[in-house]
């Protein structure tokens, strides 16, 4: 996000995972298959509404299935949804500010 590696050692951490584990009010570290981890953001009062909207979205599998079903009838919709996949997500200002405070 800032174009350079996190200064983990300067912050007193040995790894990014250790940093995330010490930010329990911001992110939850969940073990996953094959020794990997999933980082889940914890919503606060400023991001609760966004979290609700995300939770109400259909799963990626359901969207893909719906897109395949609609493919023959409406190819323009598939092209439109494909264009959105390549765009980077936009972080809320509150999240950016918290990351900047953490990094400073």
From TrEMBL:
The keyword Signal does not apply. Keywords: Differentiation. Residues 1-43 form the HTH OST-type domain. It comes from Leptosomus discolor (Madagascar cuckoo roller). GO terms for biological process: cell differentiation. InterPro entries: LOTUS-like, OST-HTH/LOTUS_dom. This is Tudor domain-containing protein 5.
């Amino acid at each position: 996000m800032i174009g350079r590696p996190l200064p983990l050692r300067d912050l007193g951490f040995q790894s990014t995972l250790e940093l995330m584990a010490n930010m329990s009010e911001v992110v939850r570290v969940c073990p996953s298959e094959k020794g990997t981890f999933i980082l889940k953001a914890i919503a606060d009062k400023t991001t609760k509404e966004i979290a609700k909207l995300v939770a109400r979205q259909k799963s990626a599998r359901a969207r893909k299935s719906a897109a395949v079903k609609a493919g023959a009838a409406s190819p323009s919709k598939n092209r439109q949804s494909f264009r959105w996949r390549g765009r980077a997500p936009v972080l809320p200002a509150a999240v950016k500010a918290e990351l900047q405070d953490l990094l400073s």
